[in-house]
Amino acid sequence: MAEVQVQEKGGKGGKVRSKKQNTRVDMTPMVDLGFLLITFFMFTTTFSKPNVMDLGLPAKPKDEKQKPPPTEIKLSNSISILLGKNNRVFWHQQDATSLNDQTLMETTLDREGIRKVIQQAKSRAADQTKFTVIIKPTDDAIYKNFVDILDEMAITKSEQYGVTDVKPWEKAIYDKKVGGAAVPAAATK
């Protein structure tokens, strides 16, 4: 706590002066309080929580008899988007026989790229109410691009979309296109 130290000087008579007092503040309780506050805030602070995306996936049927029939989506009512490495995005509206490295088109993840592609494909669809976007991330795709493409689904109001694996015939064309093309210099963040 605070202490007052008084120095007394003996002297001859004369004027009566007030005594000067030296004060000294003991900082021990202040340091103690500081450590208590640091400890309190360390225990009560929530550290950064990991970002988790909730995907509503259907339950797997236990019996093969309960398995629903495979859904056939017409090519005119769908677009397939492949998420590749180095922030590259490819799309097509082809089947296994007509897909080649010229029909696998490349675009970007901005409003002038994939958003316009989705909107144009939706406007050309035979039945716009059944228009489906099929998202196929490759093993080289990054999580950020997947989130960006899901954001594009909300922006373009594409209510029917699915996430699936890349088919072997698509993978072969993708590898041919990516392997034969030069890698972009810098990936935009």
Notes on the protein architecture:
By secondary structure, the protein is of the alpha/beta class. Helices cover 29% and strands 16% of the residues. It has four helices and seven strands, in the order ββαβββαβαβα. The strands form two sheets. Strands 5-4-3-6-7 form a five-stranded mixed beta sheet, with helices on one face. Helix 3 links the parallel strand 6 and strand 7. It is elongated.
List the helices and strands and how they pair.
Blueprint: E1 3-6, E2 21-24, H1 28-44, E3 78-83, E4 89-92, E5 105-107, H2 114-124, E6 132-137, H3 143-155, E7 161-163, H4 168-180
Parallel strand pairs: 3-6, 6-7
Antiparallel strand pairs: 1-2, 3-4, 4-5
- Specify the overall morphology: elongated
Q: Round the Cα radius of gyration to an integer and report it.
A: 35 Å
Number of strands: 7
Beta content comes to 15-25%
Number of helices: 4
Uncertain regions: pLDDT < 50 for 5+ in a row? 181-189
Helix percent reads 25-40%
Helix/strand class: alpha/beta
The ordered string of helix (H) and strand (E) elements is EEHEEEHEHEH
- The overall average pLDDT, rounded, is 79
Termini separation comes to 56 Å
Q: Enumerate the strands of the largest sheet in spatial order, edge to edge or round the barrel.
A: 5-4-3-6-7
For the largest beta-sheet, the strand count, sense and barrel status come to: 5 strands, mixed
